[in-house]
Protein 1
Amino acid sequence: MRRYRHSPLVALTLAAVMATAGIASAAPLTFTTTPLGTGVSIAEVAPEISGVWVAWEWTPGPSGSDIVVHNLANAGSSFTIGAHDFHDQSNPDVSLGRIAYQSNQNGNWDIYVYDTRFSAPNKYTTSGEDEVSPRIDGNLLVWHNQTTDRLWYYDMRRGIREEVPGATDIVNFDVDNGCIVWTEDGAFPVKKFSPAESKAGSVLVWNAGSLSSSMQVHGNLAAIGRPEGGGDAIVIDLVTYVRTNLMPSSAMKESDPAAFHNGAVWCAGDDLSYKVLGEAASMVTATTDIESDPSIFGRRIVYERRAGLSLPDVWMAWAKPEVARTAGTDRYSTAVVVSREYFSAAETDVAVLCTGANFPDALSAAPLARILGGPLLLTKPGSVPAEVIAELDRLKVKEVIIIGSAAAVSGAVESQLTGAGYNVKRLAGANRYETSVKIAEFMYGALETDYKPDTAFFARGDNFPDALAVGPVAAGALAPVLLVRPTSLPAEVAQAVDAMNFTMGFVIGDTNSVSAEVLNRLNTIARANGGEPQSVYRWAGANRYETAVTVVENAMKYYRWIDLDSLGVATGTNFPDALGGGAALGYYGSAVLLTNGTILSPATGAFLDRHQYEIGRVDVFGGTNTVSDAVKNAVGAKIR
């Protein structure tokens, strides 16, 4: 979140911006810069970037401040919210094609959201009090009631509007992936709250000791400016609460940090620097002008640039986007490497453990792992590999959830884990269909009342591609994946849909995967639970690759359950790599696509072409024997 600005500022004609496609490169990175604003004597401030959209605040004259929105994928395409209406629109934020901002058009500050899908704004506050500085991520909108000095949130999908418990004396705040983070006056603590997890209150992350000047959050990282009053910029791991000073030995003033994945940008004096945590820093800018207030998406950074006493303009810097490969020597070690990349060690972590020898029981586990906040690891049926035990130790796991019966993961595995000091719980049914129900029931019980799912996803249980594709989406929706037979609905699944009162569902795959009869039966149950006449829909393509694309497209466009901050790519011809990778990106709030291992599948390539500016980074799961370097390079050539 930015420092509060309640006065009108900013103006614009936009230039087209093209970034170079590329592959992950070692630090230091080379950044190219270009202006986005007009460069004339009109203040352009508070830039924010998310995917293809950049928004900022400008003041064209006596008519008040407006919000300018620019589409990076469409050269010169921009529009203005509130143009010349003699009211102030300010403090924009951006997520998945929505622009949140504050406006005083009703005589006090209110919160609005402009949806680029419909080219129209909606008002989200009506209290008559001053409500300011909205932050938005996916379906979660957060703002500060300046009159009462409290934080509020609104879940735009579920229609839930509540105060953030324990949030008062607000200094800075932000939201990402369902987690609200803020700093307070007084003792200056850093706190967090996740609406889906608990209404018991906020959690203290760290006592900053002095006033913070800025905060921006991404994933598990909260980037905080000047927390100790001495000009340091830090990031805090929101899982472990470990604090990292971005430049610990530097005497230079550092401020306004912003995080993305495992990297951060910050103001280093009058210039900008970037680093991946644990690596060397790269200079983003090195000019005689003053660069400040950065916002980052992938390796694209928007910021204010000011020459001397002139008014600031909005600029963008970019480096080659990251296309990583996360892989081990086999399916078990690949899941471990994925866990190391995406999960920090924490005392409260729980791990989900599935057999790596077969797929059925694990197909429903990705959303469970998201709710538990832990990785999905694989085991041999008769014993836990040494590298998996080492990863459980690194994570300081206390509880392991085994998925499937003893026929899938033996009692010997359970005894091995219990003997090593882990609490072990097994979720298992008499077959793969009942096991998926047990997982759904466990998820349902773990979620806060208002967030218990009204939606379920359905995929065939005798093959893996469709369920692999929908796993991360279901995780983002906090909804279960229930397995069905291609031509019949298992009785235990039908009973679960009724008992958990699901009123909407999505069948994944064409009629060869799940028949029309199965869909119609599900629709009848959901409708009886209070759903619409058409309550269950089909998401399908001509093959597994097109189906995965359809799932991701629909989940983003219509429901905003996931984003493309990180996009996973895995082979569509085998299941293990996509299991651990899909669970990790489900935890991350992002998606996974499937491809042929030797040639980039046309449907996946076309998706990358359509969304090339919306992808923050790509992670290829599995070694070159599952997804070749030729495919990895083809992916890198398509993103911007």
Protein 2
Amino acid sequence: MSGSEWTAKGGTLSHKNACKEFGIPIDKLFEALKADKLQFKENYAHGNPYYRLLRSEVEVFAKDLLGDKGVEEQEIKHQLKSITREINSLKRKLSSLEKQKVKLLENI
């Protein structure tokens, strides 16, 4: 693959995010890495190693492993989880702001 794919925004993802996002079992992913089915770069975050993978290759691998329908279902589940997380975050922020508002109104 071209070098620009490695530097493009959203062009890569970690091996852990690939498993979460595409529903790929970690052992199947490592088998593919050892068999050179997927390109990877080893990186470190706070001294801990992780593998950076090309998103396009992971998508193709997931479709081969799970089928088109399986990848679509996993993508929908991942999006729902992300939206739910964002909603909960906004609820917590709203609650905090409402408490601040009450304190300010008490001081008036």
